[in-house]
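Shipment paperwork, digital attachment
Item: protein structure file
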Amino acid sequence: AMWFEKDGVIYVSMPGVPYEMQGVMSSYVLPQLEKHFKTPAVMHQTVITSGMGESFVAERLVAFEASLPSHFSLAYLPSYSLLKLRLSAFGSDKLEIAAEMSTLFQELKTQVQDIMVTDQDIPVAQVIGQLLHERGKTVGTAESCTGGLISSQITAIPGSSAYYKGSVITYANEMKVQLLGVDPATIQAYGAVSEQTAIEMVKGALKNLQTDYAMAVTGIMGPDGGTPEKPVGTVWIAVADADTIITKKHHLRYDRERNTNMAAVFAMNELRKLILQ
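Attachment content:
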């Protein structure tokens, strides 16, 4: 990177490699610019929600948005079955902005309490990780259509070894039988993508992985493989502990990659709700 100053103007030439540019920008350029200029106070706080579409959430928050001071704004940022609500503030006094933000952010959380996943801008895998760590509990996964994506997202969080034991990835039906103990008659009668199979998968995960909680996912991600009874995007999710099994069916309507990511997020969010029961 190169830094030039001429006639009161600062020019910075940045490297083109994204990771290099981001590193130089965060560790050097922005701190140096703050020394040269009096920058405004900028603050963001984020609520993450699930279970309600963006337009419906926006309808709920019409009055809240209308009441915001002119130096505040609310952004709607949808991603993989989650909706981030980012409250932003701009001003000259950081302490005043922080005080206003605290009050308004609390009001925002109250407005969406029933659909709130977290009041931090963090992945849902980190949300369930925090809950498990606080309670001293463990989790494992039985994955079919997600192919290990859930376990990958969980283990991407530092410290996940304290609560994550492992995964059984049973893409083929015979592996569901051999590794999870799913009854072949269940698959024969109801199919691999069914509530009954998801239940037996999650039971097998609890037993074989010896965890406090387990998640199981089985579905049809596309672009082919669907039937009139079970079209592409059909997903069954089961989450369980020793006393409770909860199942949920989803009809996803996107491409294979997005369907898979959404199924993973849905499963982890169902686990979050079970832990909080």
